[in-house]
């Protein structure tokens, strides 16, 4: 399970490095050599955005009954037997849709999968609520969804649009910025 650790008093906890997502794969972000404090070190300035990417872009293991003929289960094998009480499997089930057509009602399925994947962020208190808006663009043969997370004061703390399914995303130089 993903754990988001708040800063504890005077010491700063380990901060996981930022991920850069190019639409097909994630890689860790590195500070430029001109960075004033940590030149060339792993960048760790966008923890919440990185946690969202991990939750959404990691394939979650599913029940065998959810697989189509010929599909192999994906995700971390440990999620099938090594979950502690209160933990949920890591990742999303969005990968199950990759071989599907854009069917009627796909918006509801995508929203359910996204909410399920991001629930650990809510459960851990890193955000208090989320909105998911899904649009199927049948002529363009794609589905877009927007994720918005809200903090304790009701303010927006994360907002990003994702394009998934049936089309490769062109590389994005800095998807976590903004």
UniProtKB/TrEMBL annotation:
Full protein name: Phage gp46-like protein
InterPro entries: Phage_Mu_Gp46
Natural source organism: Pseudorhizobium halotolerans
Pfam families: GP46
């Amino acid at each position: 399970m993903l754990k988001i650790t708040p800063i504890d008093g005077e010491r700063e906890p380990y901060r996981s490095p930022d991920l850069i997502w190019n639409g097909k794969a994630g890689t860790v972000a590195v500070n430029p050599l001109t960075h004033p404090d940590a030149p060339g070190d792993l960048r760790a300035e966008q923890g919440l955005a990185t946690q969202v990417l991990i939750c959404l872009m990691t394939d979650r293991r599913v029940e065998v009954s959810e697989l189509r003929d010929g599909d192999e289960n994906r995700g971390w094998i440990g999620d099938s037997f090594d979950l502690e009480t209160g933990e949920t499997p890591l990742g999303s089930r969005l990968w199950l849709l990759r071989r599907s057509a854009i069917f009627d009602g796909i918006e509801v399925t995508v929203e359910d999968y996204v909410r399920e994947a991001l629930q650990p962020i809510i459960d851990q208190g890193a955000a208090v609520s989320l909105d998911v808006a899904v649009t199927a663009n049948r002529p363009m043969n794609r589905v877009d969804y927007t994720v918005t997370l809200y903090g304790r004061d009701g303010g927006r703390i994360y907002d990003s649009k994702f394009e998934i399914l049936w089309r490769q995303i062109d590389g994005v130089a800095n998807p976590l910025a903004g």
